[in-house]
Design brief:
581 residues, alpha/beta, 11% strand, disordered C terminus, 6-stranded parallel β-sheet, 12 strands
Length: 581
């Protein structure tokens, strides 16, 4: 079958999110043909280029979301999304009506964010306005100029001042209105793309969006214009990320409220129109349900991670299998959300009980100035809590806490870092899917973690879990494992077995292979396939599209919803049917 893979800020670019799992997915499903439709987030990302693509990628189309700031940026946006079109009177009136309806939904005080509100009248109005704008863009050659126009700002201002508007929106001033319209314009840029014709997304059998938000918009439009089914995968829920980290442009309360309403509405529309949604864990699944996703559409598919590079450590025996019994190891990106401050205070308590204990913090700060300052603060705190110590009067002092980076002499690679650990620690206060924990599990290491994000779901009883921001509880759990090598060994073995069962690349690819088949079987795109001479093209539709009937259970013993009727047959029944044939 032919898959339209929709990405934002990742694959096929060298840098960005979801790059690795998308590449593994495409390479693992070599029997399918992939068309890549990618939205880039920065000039730097485009400058660094693409990774090497496998032969099953037949086409790549890209568009930037980062242009639009200043004259040069506006020229870049015009090149990618079409020139600014001067609308006629009728088109201007049509845009004013549609955009006015869109922002009226965002400012409606009935939009409380509850799931029942998202499936009602307001959701229908938002969807109608969104697809109306897409049709206007198709008819008139784009929306870039209109979404940046004074008319758009005035429409938003009118909605904020209208009776029944959100209380937070009523106080919106000009900077708030400009910030909101600029962000809405960026998010809706895919409406102006020429990707939806019969030679583009209209020709694929399935659209697979690798995230929500702007990446899923082309899938919504392909569904609207051509009836192409949409699969949405979210390993990190974009709406949650926006709530956790508002940008400087959204610093005003009215702007934050309006953009939260817009992103919530867009997420709800994506979930409502998607054929299936595949969250990466139960934590993401709860967010999606809260944003209006129907439970029947949700299928949890864990991220696939490469286990081979940790195999030597995980399969080691004897002393090498145990690591250093006195060493705690933390691995990750150093930033405030990881709460290394609590970890350092917890380690101070550990040292009181286990004087020989050491803490190795392995990782680099994020690219922001805040992360660099946080690392400096952590180093200063470590120096204050643990002055350099020496075993005797003539020995050189040494600090029991070390800050290292992967590739250095102490930690040449990730596997070496985990191999040195008696216990691996995670101290985060905010976490999505804890990649470092899964890596530690592949290495057969016992873990102590805080109860955030998907941690409990990932650990599944193979490690100790404590409340976040509780250094004393974290210290007690670490001491308990440091003093009990047999328990560490049991937990480590169980953790490795669990990781190999649930979190490998192979299980991820197998899950999506089955999901692709299910979607195309249930929701085939019915299009007339003819050649240049107008003759029907044989085998133009994938074989999966010809599976007769519905797969929903219609009663009977052994049947289950969403499975073929014969799936509930016993071996004896299948043999009898085969004999009858």
């Amino acid at each position: 079958m032919r898959i339209g893979l929709l990405t934002e800020g990742g694959y096929p670019y060298v840098s960005g999110e979801a790059r690795l799992w998308c590449d593994r997915l495409v390479r693992g499903l070599g029997q399918h043909e992939f068309d890549i439709y990618a939205l880039s987030r920065s000039e730097e990302q485009e400058r660094r280029g693409w990774i090497e693509l496998p032969p099953q990628v037949s086409r790549v189309r890209t568009a930037p979301l980062w242009t639009g700031d200043g004259a040069a940026g506006a020229a870049g946006a015009d090149a990618a999304f079409g020139p600014r079109v001067r609308y006629g009177r009728r088109a201007r009136r049509r845009f004013a009506e549609l955009f006015g309806e869109l922002v009226a939904v965002l400012t409606d005080s009935r939009d409380s964010g509850a799931p029942e509100d998202r499936s009602g009248e307001l959701a229908d109005r938002f969807g109608s306005a969104l697809y109306g704008l897409a049709e206007l863009a198709r008819d008139e050659g784009g929306l870039v100029g209109a979404l940046r126009s004074e008319a758009a700002v005035r429409a938003l201002e009118g909605a904020c001042r209208a009776p029944g508007a959100l209380r937070a929106a009523r106080g919106a001033r000009v900077p708030d209105l400009l910030a909101v319209t600029a962000e809405v314009e960026r998010a809706l840029r895919p409406l102006s793309l020429d990707w939806y014709e019969d030679d583009g997304l209209g020709a694929v059998d399935l659209c697979h969006a690798t995230s929500g938000g702007p990446a899923a918009l082309p899938g919504l439009l392909a569904r609207h214009f051509a009836g192409v089914p949409l699969l949405v995968t979210e390993y990190g829920v974009q709406l949650r990320a926006h709530y956790l980290a508002a940008t400087e442009a959204e610093s005003g309360a009215p702007a934050r409220a309006l953009l939260a309403a817009f992103r919530g509405r867009l997420a709800a529309e994506v979930y409502r129109r998607a054929t299936l949604i595949t969250p990466g864990n139960t934590h993401a699944r709860r967010w999606q349900e809260r944003c209006g996703a129907e439970r029947a559409k949700l299928r949890t598919v864990y991220p696939g991670m490469e286990s081979g590079r940790f195999g030597e450590v995980g399969e080691a025996e004897g002393i090498a299998a145990a690591g250093d019994p006195d060493t705690l190891v933390w691995v990750g990106r150093i930033e405030p959300a990881k709460d290394l401050i609590s970890l350092l205070h917890a380690f101070a308590e550990v040292r009181k009980e286990e004087p020989k204990a050491r803490l190795r913090i392995v990782g680099a700060p994020g690219g922001s100035e805040e992360s660099l300052n946080y690392l400096a603060h952590c180093r200063a705190l470590a120096a204050q809590l643990f002055p350099d110590e020496a075993e005797g009067a003539h020995a050189v002092g040494d600090n029991p806490v070390s800050f290292e980076e992967i590739g250095g002499p102490e930690a040449p690679d990730l596997a070496e870092a985990y191999a040195a650990a008696g216990v691996v620690v995670l101290s985060s206060v905010v976490e999505g899917f804890p990649i470092s924990l899964v890596e530690a599990m592949f290495c057969g290491r016992a873990t102590v973690s805080t109860d955030v994000g998907a941690v409990v779901e990932v650990i599944g009883g193979t490690g100790l879990v404590v409340p976040p921001r509780n250094p004393r509880a974290l210290a007690e759990a670490c001491v308990a494992l440091l003093r009990d090598p047999e328990r560490r060994e049991r937990l480590g073995a169980a953790a490795r077995a669990r990781a190999l069962e649930l979190f490998t690349v192979e299980q991820n690819i197998a899950a999506f292979r089955a999901i692709y088949l299910e979607i195309v079987s249930h929701c085939p795109v019915r299009r007339e396939a003819v050649d240049e001479a107008g003759e029907p093209v044989p085998f133009a539709h994938p074989a999966e599209a010809h599976v007769p009937g519905r797969w929903a259970a219609t009663g009977g013993s052994g049947g289950s919803a969403g499975a073929p009727r014969w799936a509930g047959d016993t071996d004896a029944e299948l043999k009898l049917k085969g004999a009858a044939v």
